[in-house]
Design goal:
single chain; alpha/beta; TIM Barrel; 304 residues
Length: 304
């Protein structure tokens, strides 16, 4: 993440800014560009719309870093309800979960048990569970909890971040477990000791890891990016690939590119976030593209 992105994350973490964005109409309008809505029904409606366009989906019930058992159990139950709705509505999609939302950090055992419960319910409705990768402080425990659940159920996948130096090594543990592996650049502000900082270095790492994942038919690579140069690297490898693969993009980001890829018949999954806890998700989207905050400021100023 560049300097501007880091500064934006620092600013948006301040409570006054949070209030400005969550408590005003332009702030909420910005959220609707990237978030399906606050309810499961709204998420299912967007999922149906995406399915009709030919995309699969991954539904993310927004929330992270819960601090007590009741919140963690409520998050698990929200995801169970989401899986039931996927089954009941015939949605072609799965769920994406953040383990910190299930209690990782204060009760790893609870988070692991909840991930097990989600994988079991996903199997009942014929789908899978993707585990998001969060900040570097929790990389080890995320991989451990994912590996345990994947060994038990076999219907999970994990996100990995190209910007972390350690990711190539982590894949030696993760790839033999099969599953779908989502390769993304990484969305958190990480220090230079552990993460590539420049765009070129991150892109080079992303391309190296794309080659590695696409050369293994035992895993399903999910190339998660809106960067056309990165997507071209994958496209060049597709003719030599026998196993499954897919592209993944975020709801509301580069919709024109999404439509073009679907028109060309590319396998594309749209990550569809929903729920009331949309603020941290939105701030990461703003930090990736400061033009998004300019959009918000213009809308806010035009009200006065
Ligand atoms: C499906 C999916 C799942 C993800 N899961 C995780 C995860 O588990 N953990 C994690 O750390 N990160 C995750 N990310 C975020 C990822 O790490 C990047 O921060 C994000 O995708 C931006 O990187 P990029 O590859 O699109 O390339 P960039 O170089 O950032 O962007 C390429 C182009 O895409 C457009 N673009 C990118 N982002 C935006 C935006 N927010 N608004 C408008 N336009 C934009 C711009 O035109 C930009 O020039 C995920 C991303 C995707 C697509």
């Amino acid at each position: 993440m560049n300097f501007l992105g880091r500064s934006l994350l620092a600013v948006t973490n301040r409570s006054a800014v949070r209030k400005l964005i969550t408590g005003t109409r332009p702030g909420r309008a910005l959220s609707t560009r990237f978030v399906a809505g606050e309810t499961l029904e709204q998420a299912i409606a967007v999922a149906q719309e995406m399915n009709a366009k030919g995309a699969t989906v991954s539904l993310d019930h927004l929330g992270e870093h819960v601090t007590d058992r009741a919140q963690a159990e409520a998050a698990r139950d929200d995801y169970l309800a989401c899986l039931d709705a996927i089954g009941a509505n015939g949605i072609n999609g799965n769920i994406s979960v953040k383990l910190s939302q299930l209690g990782m950090g204060f009760d790893d055992e609870l988070a692991g048990a909840s991930l097990d419960a989600l994988a079991a319910r996903a199997a009942d409705v014929g789908t899978t569970v993707s585990v998001d990768m969060e900040e570097s402080a929790v990389t080890d425990v995320t991989i451990d909890l994912y590996a345990a659940a994947q060994r038990n159920h076999g219907n999970l996948g994990l996100a990995v971040q190209a910007y972390l130096h350690r990711t190539r090594h982590d894949l030696d543990t993760i790839m033999p477990l099969g599953g779908h592996i989502r390769l993304c650049k990484g969305a958190y502000a990480e220090p230079s000791e552990i993460a590539y900082q420049s765009r070129d270095e991150v892109n080079e790492a992303f391309d190296r890891l794309t080659h590695l994942l696409m050369s293994d038919d035992g895993v399903k690579p999910a190339i998660a990016s809106h960067d056309t140069d990165r997507l071209d690297v994958t496209a060049a490898l597709v003719p030599n690939r026998f196993g499954p693969y897919e592209y993944q993009m975020l709801y509301g980001v580069r919709p024109g590119l999404q439509a073009k890829m679907l028109g060309a018949g590319d396998p594309l999954r749209i990550y569809v976030p929903y729920g009331v806890a949309w603020y941290p998700y939105l701030t990461r989207r703003m930090a990736e593209r400061p033009a998004n905050i300019a959009f918000f400021l213009r809308a806010a100023l035009s009200r006065s």
